[in-house]
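## Example pair
The file below holds two records. Each record gives the amino-acid sequence first, followed by its structure token line.
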Amino acid sequence: MFPCADAFVIKLDPAGDVVFATYFGGNGNETGASAICVDASGNVYLAGTTGPNTVGQPAIFPVTPGAAFTNLVGGGFVAKLNSSGTALIYSTLLPVNPPALARQRAVAMAIDAAGEAYIASTNTGTLPFPTTPGAFQSTLPAFPNGSGVVAKLNASGSALVYATYLSGNGLTIPQGIAIDAAGDAFVAGFTQAADFPVTLGAFLAGYFPSAQYMEFVTKLNPKGTGLVYSTFLGATLNYVSDVKVDAQGGAYVSAQDGAELSSGGYLSHLSADGSALLYSTYIPTVTAMDLALDSAGSAFVAGASGMAVLTASPGAFQSGLVGVTGNVIAAKFTSDGQFAGGTYAYVAPAAGAGPLIALAPSGAMILAEGAPEMTVISIFPWLTAQNAASGAASTVAPGEIVTLRGHGLGPATAAVAADQAPAYQLGGTQVTFGGIAAPVFSAQSQQVTVQAPWEIAGQTSTEVVVAYNGGPPAGTSASAPVVVATAAPGIFAVANSDWTLNSPSNPAKVGSFITIYGTGGGLTNPVGTTGGLWPLTSALATLTLPVTVSIGGTNAVVLYAGSAPTLESGYFQINVALPSGLQASSAANLVVTVGDSSGVAVPISNQ
């Protein structure tokens, strides 16, 4: 039998061990690297293309009963696997037929909270694309050999919610799609159509006459019936581009520029109405950049590079190239476009079309390269601040106990402060936040734990600096900007009413109370002392922001929220009564919210 390519899905745990691995395909050629998404329940959505079945053989591509499209020959597909990778929830074909360009994302996909899938791809005209009534562009453009299409698939995979063309009279290749909370779809890609639809007041309305391709960004309304805005962005090459959207509705786009390859790529941040660039910056000498965005609006890009053109940040994972192939440049930019970190990383012996990237809640960056074989690495690329309790990385609150991850931050063997007495220099390591000294609990080469000074309250951002052995020239130092939040709660431990630790073998009793110990609760009244202990007095410090605690989805009664007497001032203590009627569970999710900041859920046991 003629050998055909199959897609595959692999889930790795944080240590890089395989949780599950499965092939996905039939007896045609499948490409599953186009798009993959995971929902809150751990279900996996896979999108790609499938070719005609092997000559003389019946088609065996796995399509589920009731799927939206079941009888297509070739084209695209969307499939949803359960969280264990053992069964299909649905699998449907798609009436798209992308052209065989060397560098493209054949099917782009995003999912919303309801499990509906948004698709962007290209139709060459060999398959009819069934647009829906009222669609923005319901008829095939006069140029049929490569028209952009956008569609929304319902949560069961049984029907299209909407489907529209998005094209002019020229080759149009959507490459990325993102959605906002309202269901608007942001589509980015490249086109050769000078009459590609742009809107009044767009940032760039004209096609550059000398451009081989033009990058576009289009925002479709939630019903797919019209454009919120559509704009050209600049000249580009036919490399994979991507788009992400922040909570304010701003679109971030990565693409390759339209000049020589050595000119590199660019990262651009569009205003919410598509009328202006909030920032745009070149990324030196990379190909096929991928893009990720964190909750603070920081953008992360990575692409293959064979030239040492980046100045890596102090504390970076890798300071320079390794060999001549297989190297990746990764960079971080703050929400206002400032360079916040850069590193090299050696991913594979030979570079493919460029790496895919993802961000872990811990701040680690996962890089995956698919040629000549799949290689996946997880790194802390530069100085990264985490909540010491939850391990989550994004923002820092005044007084929070923070773990700083990076390279060259301290001694090879960990130095640990005695008892509860953090030092302002430990093992040769010193840390400051905005020039204010931070108490150090422990220090070693790749990890330093400190308390963020209470004095950073009221700021929106600050610079954290780690100096080892005095810093340059004799020692090393690393620095990074961090976003300062009013609160960033994380949970260290939960104790039952008898002060023993809660666990499946030691559950809390119905009708009792529990005590939560954490950090990142924000300001207290009175304010804590940086590096000091909470006193054991009758007048305890209390958290100034409102506190809510949910257990198993039900709000608990908060009895106390404030200082943790005799512990270091970075800790908070919250006492809550277990909700009445709470179902017995060995893993009920407990979530602490302080102000408008919610922490990572932790499981508790009750009976």
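Second record, same layout:
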Amino acid sequence: MSAPLLVLEDIRKTYATGGGVAVEVLRGVSLTVEAGEFVAIVGSSGSGKSTLMNILGGLDRPTSGSYRVGGRDVSELEGDERAALRRDGFGFVFQHYHLIPGTSAQENVEMPGRYAGLPAALRESRAAALLGRLGLGERRHHRPNQLSGGQQQRVSIARALMNGAPVILADEPTGALDSASGAEVVALLRELAAEGRTIVLITHDRKVAEAADRVVEMRDGRIVSDSATDGGRRSRPAAPVSAAATAEHHTPASVWTSAGEAFTAALRSLGANGFRTALTLLGIVIGVASVIALLAIGEGAKRAVMARVGALGVNLVYVLAGSGDPRLPTTPLTEADGEAILRLPNVESVMPYLDMPVMVRYGNIDHRTSGLATSASLPLTHRWPVAAGSFFTTADERAGAAVAVLGHNVAKRLFPNGESPLGRHVQVNNIPFQVTGVMGQKGDLTGSQDTDDWVFVPLSTGVQRLVGKPDLQLILVSVHTVGRIAETRDAIGALMTKRHGQEDFQIRDVTARIRTATETQDTMTLLLGSAAVVTLLVGGIGVMNIMLVSVTERTREIGIRMAAGARTADIERQFLMEAALVAGLGGLVGVALGLASGALVGLFVMPVLFTATAIAGAVTSAVVTGLVFGLIPARRAARLDPVAALSSE
């Protein structure tokens, strides 16, 4: 004879009450069930029969005693191994059906197959066949609340058969049904027993128990009678169903398949609570929108400042007259100083700088502005092209020619009707100058002076006709190689100290300005980004709170999934997927909102610059935030006790 399928020896189960009192529910139960038997365990409420069924199905553990399934000691099995035992070895039929609301009859029946790794097509066809066999083929797309009690119980039976489990555990399957529906369910169990499945029926109704081939009576946590040993009937199936018959299909689903199933379940769950999901999304939406908009504003401001500073020329060195200390005597800068600097290595050009206030007139239009007496090297030094005509030449400088080049705004002011200024004579401090060119538009480079509002004249002409003395405010030096600008700056300092006999000048370069501006803008961007990240974290806390509420509300659903064979990783994956999905959807909506709000700021307030890195980073951060803050609820769900979860209201 083959070994018994289910063997319990001296099983005891003790629960500790809230007051610390130990209550012994099972008191030394020993029971053997052969493969293919139809056994009814009957007893009144509180006799321990449901606790015994939970132990038989691997939902609960005995306090002491031995339980073996097919010769394997169940006490040696841990979390996922016990889940595999429930998935492949047992099908559960509960008194209150325990169907997952919001999902169709077909989806409820398919659920054990999902956790067993059955291909989708096989799951669908098998579920449809089972429902058709039980008379529900036309109602397989109905949800539980659209089915009668008897129909829901038949769906529960179909689910128990989904993975071809050799053992069906039915706990009061007729308890919530009328007599006609109850008789149908009992008849179905008889059919399954006739096919060779092992049926363990838990009931308090002796009439229902009479349908079994063997009746075991429990009272006060003990077996008080067993028809198998008392001369009663005992089933002798010709070909009992074994787990090996369906084991070929029962391999855990791949990570990608499980993720896809979890994604589908997450969508369904979130859709069932649309308003709450929208409120949860709100925190993530605001956080992501803030990240994108604030970083775009910060990056736009940074680029604007860098453009302004960069327009001055990153290859420039400024030699300024005066040490900055009023107590020290000052030797003026001269054109000869510039000529000496021009002979140094790495120096590309030298531009003397002598400005003065001037009144410019053409016809009856007067305009007060600034004049700049400089050299013909200005377009090269400043990388500043002439828009019309030409800049004055070195020959003009040597000759002290009365020629001028107008800034963009000066030309527009003096010639408002679009007349070309080239070749015209304008009065500069009542001295006529012929216009040879108009500079390209440059903008406000310094933040305090609009360079497009200048009038440019040769240095010699400015000294002789407009200022009267050759003292320069500064000498602007451009270098060939920016990487050697520090070396060139030191060489200029040494030369000027030697020429003046003291350090009565100052030397600066644009790289220091750029570095300072960059550091300042990076700090501002970091502060803006930090503020946005805080908002995103607040949204993540909201996700965690909602997910914790969801776990509490769906505790029974979690228990149902565990009974169907869901592993710890399956439960964790589903709730993590829901959290990531909420955060991801919120991230996408937040991207749209951030782009729109940033565009409005850029349109009406200040320049903004969106970057793909910031957008991708914001969405990724949202999903990661959802995963991080969803981890605690997911782990709480995965670590629920199956029995406690199933019994929750």
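Notes on the second record: Confidence is low (pLDDT under 50) at residues 242-250. The CA atoms of residues 309 and 514 lie 6 Å apart.
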